[in-house]
Amino acid sequence: MASRYIYHPFIKGTMPQTKPIVSIENVVASATVNQTVNLNLITQIFPDVEYHPDQFPGLVFRLRSPKTATLIFSSGKMVCTGAKSEKMAIQAVKNVVQKLKKGGIPLENEPQIEIQNIVASASLGGKIHLELAARVLPRSMYEPEQFPGLIHRMLDPKTVILLFASGKLVCTGAKKESEVYRAVGNLHTLLEEKNLMIYEG
């Protein structure tokens, strides 16, 4: 289940007409154990891993809990995808390293883990006038012939938001969950202030 969070921004002392619902879809974490890793040995000990060096240099180590996929490279670098929270991504990498050690893979160091990207979706609860938004919102691009969404680049927090007329959006580029909620809250506030939200009923 994706983690959900209801954001309550205040606009000029009044509550907005809707409360955005944010859902974290994917957290990407990178890690390193600062040593080389024998990928062929891992395939011998863990037959369920995916490793096709003629197609891709990384090995795929999947976990059922938390449900994630971690790419492992011979350099000792790793990339974990599929987590639904920062905590889950960090735990997944630690679990993989622990399993490798228990399986007999000689790893001397604990993984150094860093969150690289958080992808989230959100619903603003109302429709959006995209053509007008494209003219009003700074750092925005809208070319409906090529893509149905408006692309908005936010400076603080540094994120890219794909905004759709339905009021749905996708936020990428955040490195902390708090940045996702702040980005969605900032955009929602701006849309309300510029009268770009369309409410039915």
UniProtKB/TrEMBL annotation:
GO terms for molecular function: DNA binding; DNA-binding transcription factor activity. One of its GO terms (biological process) is DNA-templated transcription initiation. Keywords: DNA-binding, Repeat, Transcription, Transcription regulation. It holds the Pfam family TBP. SUPFAM superfamilies: TATA-box binding protein-like. Coiled coil: none annotated. Sequence repeats lie at residues 24-100, 115-191. InterPro entries: TBP (IPR000814), TBP_CS (IPR030491), TBP_dom_sf (IPR012295). Belongs to the TBP family. General factor that plays a role in the activation of archaeal genes transcribed by RNA polymerase. Binds specifically to the TATA box promoter element which lies close to the position of transcription initiation. This is TATA-box-binding protein. It comes from Nitrososphaera viennensis EN76. The gene is tbp.
